[in-house]
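Handout, page 2. Input:
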Amino acid sequence: MRKRYLPGVIGDTELHYYGSSPICRDCRHRIGFDRLSCAAFPDRIPKEIWNGERDHHTPYPGDGGIRFEAMTPEDQERKARLAAERHAWYLALKERLIAEGKLKPKSMTDEPATVDSDTRRVAG
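Output:
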């Protein structure tokens, strides 16, 4: 049965990639790749695999023979090291941009935004 939508409403739920992938997050072939890519799918992991609708222990078109392999303790250390390196790079970039005047430093005295409970709007 085809899904029915209100006139003028686009039903795109079948196009969504949901949060963290139940299988991909623990795969050793994701280490060092951004967002929705890995060694098997460098352009984009198919949503069926990402969303857990399809197991990737078996061949999938376009995977180049690379299948799910669980991370070893060494892989987990490498993943943590790469994350630390990425964070250090980000902090260095942030400091450089502040020094060049391209980014305003956040002051500890900056007031956090408050929400008016009556209107549910940010006050300030």
